[in-house]
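We store sequence with structure; for instance:
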Amino acid sequence: MFSKFVCFLVLFVTVLPSMAQPRETIDFNGGWSFTLEDDLQFRRASFSPVNWKKVSLPHDWSIGFDFGEEYPAGNAGGALPGGIGWYRKAFQLSENDKGSHYTLYFGGVYRYAEVWLNDQYLGKNINGYLSFERDLTPYLRYGNEQNVIAVRVDNSLQPNSRWYTGSGIYRDVRLEKRAPVHLLPAETFITTPKVSTEKSSVRVQSVLSQAGSGKAGRVVLKLRDKNKKTIAEKTVLFSSSQIEGELQVDGVSLWSPDSPTLYDLDITVLDNTNKILDELRYKVGFRYFQFDENGFALNGEPFKLLGVCLHHDLGALGAAFNKSAAKRQLLIMKDMGVNAIRTAHNPFAEEFLDLCDELGFLVQNEAYDMWAKRKNKFDYHIDFKEHHIVDLITLVKRDRNHPSVFMWSIGNEIREQFDDTGVALTKGMTEVVKKLDPTRPVTAALTETNYEKNFIAQAGVLDVLGFNYKYFDYDKLPTEFKGVPLIASETTSALQTRGVYDALHDTIQLWPASSADKFVTNGNPDFTVSAYDNVAAYWGTSHERAWLEVKKRDFLGGIFVWTGFDYLGEPVPYPYPARSSYYGIVDLAGLPKDVYYMYQSEWTDTEVLHLLPHWNWKEGEQVDVWCYYNNADEVELFLNGQSLGRRSKTDERLHASWKVPYEAGELKVVKIKDGTVVQETVKKTAGKPVDIVVDVEHDRYAVDGLTDLYFLTVSLVDKNGTIVPDNDVEVSFLPQENLTIRGTDNGYQADLNSLASPKRNTYKGFAVAMIQKNSMEKGAKIIVKANTIKKEIVIK
């Protein structure tokens, strides 16, 4: 067993086509036809899908439905349907394209995907979370003849997950044109054997396609900085399909979450006549890290992993991946102080990892939620025995050059943890990962804190052990699991609905109270949970307690909170009509809950002074008032100008609090440092709603033009501009020109209106719409209507 794991590696963002065009990537997302009928005649090239729906990818067919209790996935699966769907697309190639090699790339299809080209069966893909490719070259037609792709997607076996999966071709599809002799990206591995600000090195290992076997030529490696200046270059000769070369680099800037510096690496393959055979471009960064019994260090400095767990859905978009929506999620987390992400509990889109590389996040990349022992009747366990090794190979080869991957996780709360079958499976998968990528540690998220009962730990091959929950056992872990670095791989499971404030109890409320109860027995009739940090699932605890227990223990390398955002499905503690989770620090619409500011006050230097709750109550009602703050000695609360006393945080409590008899007016808190007021914030009693305010967010979340989203946040306000938290109204989003509404939301976990609907009630004063331009060349208009109020929003 390793007592220490030190890693030097390269950071990878994306593969781009070169200017010389030996390799061309063609966007294949548009022009598809779709149906939810099922007939094997649909695979025929001669079939005409005249009545099918026209769709663009990524596409999640489930998210367009109203939520329903009748769907077999249950509310744990999002209370939405699965089923079987077909996709078809026709395309043409020029006679001049003959001789090129064509590959069709699918970023992800949930679930079972079968592919045909021109009546030829190209096989079945099993894993709904992994990308896959199909070689089209032998079956293509050129000139005036059409090529027809048909894809059958089968997500009919339900339930197959503990959360919402989505259905369909829900990630990007692209057609890649390559020369007959080309590099294989899956076989390309880039590492940095030496990393320092003085001297570093980049090693490139790759393989040429079979067409390149036995050919002689050379590879030019070129590294450039952000100003496009070449800082290292080398020519490597080759005479077989294997290619390897190393660059020596002086004076690089190191990559870190605070400064994610990246460099361009070009790999150009030429034959003996200097003809370019292929060219790839990667984004490279330099860093090193270390796990040991004292925690985690990055680039030689102690570094606490301040992480969250995320699921792959994007709220109102469902599982359909959109890079700007993912960027929005990540930047909201970044502002909170997050520096690490755990992908729960499956591989994410490659483009998500690109964003983590660029924005500066460390990612624990997780492969599986179950092995051979099931958690749902039709989950991955039915395919595990035959496919888990090949799927693990695919994952590691796909993502091993990403900076966002600093650790591989082979499983989450795996049931083989409790019997000796876990030993062999752990050894086998860890060996596979290490062979493909010896530069990163391997871990698993465990629950059993007694070594004698934990057979995954007993395998003795994991570099780092992650433990979920059970903070009361943290201090025994270094003794039970001697010499192995430790992280808190999943914590908290606190429950909240944004904007709801129930009277506080003296202790943390557990909803449900124990494993004997499937649901909470005395919950709220409107299926809400208080936003005070005082309710958790029985296996969890409050956000404050979970963070305090990790914060005080240096031997824990970091924390991954369950979860950063609410997600579809798994709506503990309630049955239907609850249909999405309550765990998030941010709600499903992307609106922060109050506890967001607790983390921001602890994890950043941003000036934080957050007061809760709202100030609309009944006269004389006693209200619990909390304040999250930082960078100060104490805070003082005022009600209508009268001081209610000063309070401060303690070593065991990360907020200030008062009990206040309600009277209408103004509640103000001020932050005091060295006897001076340095910041203040106010909550006012709101009157009747008379107007709406529409904020448009786009520029910060922009990524690539046409797929960019515009996020419209609607606030319901009174005549003084105060948010109205207790008098919600229906909002209609009415497209006028050049735009499509992709989804709407309000963060309420039991809202049964389809998330694809252009109408949404505000919830606690807010609603959000995600819209997309149809053309980037011209402006767009939308009317936002609430009762008699209309606002025309012009988007340039």
